[in-house]
Write a structure and sequence with these properties.
Transcription Regulator spoIIAA; Jelly Rolls; alpha/beta; five-stranded mixed sheet; elongated; 27 helices; 16 strands; 3 domains
Length: 714
């Protein structure tokens, strides 16, 4: 309460003073009513422990600017008060709707340069609006004119203001037990009464422009503040109400950002987690209540909250207590409030405005990469000062969009690029097949994409793909890291597909995400917009490996390589035993078992005990590393004439992965125990088998190294 009350009175006076000298006291009461209603209602419904809600600088800047505009448009004081009340009510309703529809977590992601520029602009507006009050010039004298009209300065007010600013600025260096705003206000009041000893005219309350003035008694002041603003409702032109929507929406966004920013800092300090949507509902209800009873809108306040936390507060009750104590303070000190010097309140707000200015943003000028961010801050500040805060909000939203597009465009949409003779599927090939893939693999280009495919990045992607469209027969786009796709990107992909189709070339998508952060199912989206059609030369696969394997099979088929899949291979036809003597092979085959598996049947599972190596006579075997009961990682696929299970054969340990028959499969099975028995009689055969296995493993490793090198270089 000690921190929030002086500032709230100052904000209320700032908002109401453009309406005329008779409304200054009503502004002070509005500030007190705001502290009371916000503390009680927002504290009860918001749910964030330790948070203090009170009138704040953004509310004062927006509402005072609106008050000035209303008076310039010829509105009466009573009508302007009603308009300000309606803005507060609409603002509260908008905040409640923000929380109800779940926008709480989105408001926190407004780009920092926009928020920084807006808050700096608010700070400068407050300083500019308070300097004339600080100098004591008549209300019709504005900032620049007040600076050069020294003859109009009231030196008593200047002295009071300087004392207030000096004490408030330096108090934290000496003590933090009492808030600086309280010490500054007390110093300003003491300075005023000190000057009153030399000039008795200062001790008269009636007609004294240097102080707030009589409140009409505590009860009367409250009654007038609550009921008086509704007197002009009969003269209200409802066509004007539509003009209030923009400032109300601007105020709602500003207050929401201010509150959630404070909540985030509070979470970091207390290792807690607030509910953004519930807090916005509480803030909206608080602003509805505050505006209804004649108070000033507000938000969760950083300074007051930190003081509250350091004082030992732990729950929401502290916010309720703050609201109740503000009311008690007014009832007890109502007469004293009338004697508060206007210059002292102006001094407090000048310090607050100075502290709102983001001086750290000047560091953005040191780096070329952040100059544009600084330009955004300057643009928002300039618009806020020269046009209005409402216009600045529009500029801020527009620049937020520009910043987003800029960040998306600056990053590369292509994460990696490789060719089919650099990257291979996990299907283990025979040397003859690998020779074909090495020779013809460059007809395939693989692009790993990332980020968002939208109108801002489509040209970048097209420029990257264009050189390959006339030279490659297969373009594979790995989509697993793509976050979103819009219609512009789909249209560009259709153009690419049409260009490839003219040459009978294929566009291939792999790993289309089923649930991107936006909730979009990309495969379903491509179907809905007609990109993936059966008559088009487009293929889609669940994994990149499946796409690579499909392309490899087509390349091998195009070379007309003879592959007799129907007949199981004999031992002499298996690649590792080519050229061996018949007697040697007969001795080896006598140690082997012949086994057959149906498609989908498990040959062995991870964790199984076993010492057998398997040689594939017919079919294909898929090796999968289980991750969970429903998920597994595809390690490799072995085909006819290949072998697998060699790890358990060479190192007697449990199986490290699952082996599944991909198709109907026939195998030779050789156990280590029977091989060791054979090796005692046929040492040359045993050495030849081990060397053959080692040679194949070395070839596999060499290809793996080549793929890793290609991935690193892409």
């Amino acid at each position: 309460m000690l921190v929030a009350l002086p500032s709230a009175i100052a904000f209320g006076v700032t908002i109401f003073s453009p309406l005329g000298g008779t409304y200054v006291a009503q502004g002070a009461i509005a500030g007190i009513l705001g502290v009371t209603a916000l503390g009680l209602i927002a504290g009860a419904f918001g749910g964030t422990n330790r948070l203090i809600t009170a009138p704040c600088a953004p509310a004062a800047a927006v509402m005072s600017a609106l008050a000035i505009q209303l008076m310039q448009d010829g509105a009466s004081g009573e009508s302007a008060v009603l308009m300000l009340t309606l803005v507060g009510l609409i603002c509260g309703a908008i905040q409640v709707s923000f929380g109800a529809v779940g926008l709480g977590r989105l408001i926190k992601y407004v780009p920092f340069p926009v928020v920084s520029g807006y808050l700096s602009g608010v700070g400068l507006i407050i300083i500019v609006s308070q300097v004339p009050k600080f100098l004591g010039v008549p209300k019709e004298i504005h900032f620049w004119e007040s600076l050069v009209s020294s003859s109009l300065w009231q030196w008593q007010g200047v002295v009071v203001g300087v004392v207030t600013v000096a004490v408030m600025a330096t108090a934290p260096m000496f003590t933090k037990a009492v808030p600086a705003a309280i010490l500054g206000l007390a110093a300003g009041v003491l300075a005023y009464f000190g000057l009153g000893l030399a000039d008795p005219a200062l001790l008269a309350l009636q007609g004294n422009a240097l102080v707030i003035g009589p409140l009409g008694g505590a009860g009367a002041g409250f009654g007038e503040a609550i009921s008086g603003r509704w007197k002009a409702v009969g003269d209200l032109d409802f066509a004007v109400v539509g003009r209030l929507l923009v400032p109300a929406a601007t105020l709602a966004v500003l207050l929401s950002i201010d509150t959630l920013k404070t909540c985030v800092v509070l979470d970091a300090l207390t290792r807690s987690r607030h509910n953004s949507n519930r807090e916005l509902i509480g803030q909206g209800l608080g602003n509805l209540a505050s505006s209804f009873v004649g108070g000033v809108p507000g938000a969760g306040q950083m300074g007051a909250t930190l003081v509250n936390m350091s004082s030992g507060a732990h729950t929401r009750l502290s916010g309720l207590v703050e609201g109740a104590l503000a009311l008690v303070a007014f009832l007890v000190l109502g007469t004293f409030i009338a004697w508060i010097p206007i210059a002292a309140l102006a001094g407090i707000l000048i310090v607050i405005g100075f502290r709102m200015f983001d001086r750290d943003s000047l560091h953005l000028l040191k780096s070329r990469t952040t100059i544009l961010d600084f330009a955004v801050i300057v643009a928002v500040v300039v618009v806020a000062l020269t046009v209005s805060l409402i216009a600045a909000s529009g500029v801020g939203i527009a620049l937020a969009i520009v910043l987003f597009i800029r960040e998306q465009i600056r990053g590369s949409i292509v994460r990696g690029k490789a060719y089919g003779n650099q990257m291979f599927s996990k299907r283990v090939r025979l040397p003859a097949e690998m020779e074909i893939l090495e020779k013809r693999g460059d007809s395939t280009a693989i692009f790993e994409l990332q980020g968002s495919l939208f109108f801002g990045t489509t040209d970048q992607l097209y420029t990257t793909l264009e050189p390959e469209l006339k030279a490659r027969s297969y373009i594979i786009l790995d989509m697993r890291r793509v976050q979103s796709v819009d219609l512009t990107a789909v249209h560009m992909l259709e153009q690419i597909q049409a260009m490839l189709a003219e040459r009978k070339a294929f566009l291939i998508f792999s790993a289309l995400p089923a649930n991107v952060p936006s909730g979009q199912d990309m495969r379903k989206y491509f179907d809905e917009v007609g990109l993936v059609k059966t008559e088009r030369l487009i293929q889609t696969f669940n994994e990149l490996d499946e796409a690579l394997e499909w392309v490899e099979e087509r390349l091998i088929e195009e070379e007309h390589l003879e592959r007799l899949q129907e007949k199981p291979l004999e031992l002499r036809e298996i690649d590792v035993f080519l050229g061996r003597k018949e007697t040697t092979l007969a001795a080896l085959e006598s140690c082997m078992d012949k086994r057959s598996y149906k498609a989908g049947e498990k040959i062995f599972a991870r964790g199984d005990a076993g010492d057998e190596m398997f040689l594939i006579r017919r079919g294909a075997v898929r090796i999968v590393l289980p991750i969970s009961d429903t998920q597994g990682h595809h390690l490799a696929t072995f085909g006819r004439s290949d072998f697998f299970g060699e790890m358990a054969f060479l190192d007697p340990a449990a199986r490290s992965a699952d082996a599944l028959a991909l198709t109907d499969t026939d195998l030779f099975a050789l156990s280590r125990k029977r091989f060791d028995t054979l090796a005692e009689e046929h040492k040359k055969l045993a050495i030849g088998l081990v060397l053959g296995v080692a040679r194949v493993l070395a070839i596999r490793l060499r290809y793996a190294n080549a793929e890793l090198r290609a991935m690193h270089m892409s």
